[in-house]
Sequence to fold (131 residues):
Amino acid sequence: MFVFRLDTHSGVPPYLQLVQQVRQAVLLGFLQPGDRLPLIREVVEDLAINPNTVAKAYRQMEQEDLVTGRPGQGTFVNEQQSAAMPASTYTSLRRGLEAWLRRAYAAGLDERAVDALLASVHQQMRNEGVA
Fold:
């Protein structure tokens, strides 16, 4: 079963953290079409947050066509237009990124510098039409 977590120090609203976690899990293949998300009351109990916060996250995910709520059954992940990547691809990319991050931190970059560098490269890739 999918388990949500909250980072109280991130500065990101809790409902948005829930949405982002589902988006990422779908993109990385951890959630598949048809998988059921935890019930709102389960999330409320696990995270000790307001049910309206969870309901807001689920509504946003439905508006983004990421999930569909079925009355009396729960909320389920929809088929996505872009397929999730194979696990082997994910593992390979993750290892490469971990190695790169270790080199960046060893070179003296802090988290903000790494984020700035990644944002810069993302922008360059968008400008080149790669991303």
Q: What stands out?
A: Residues 87-129 form one domain.
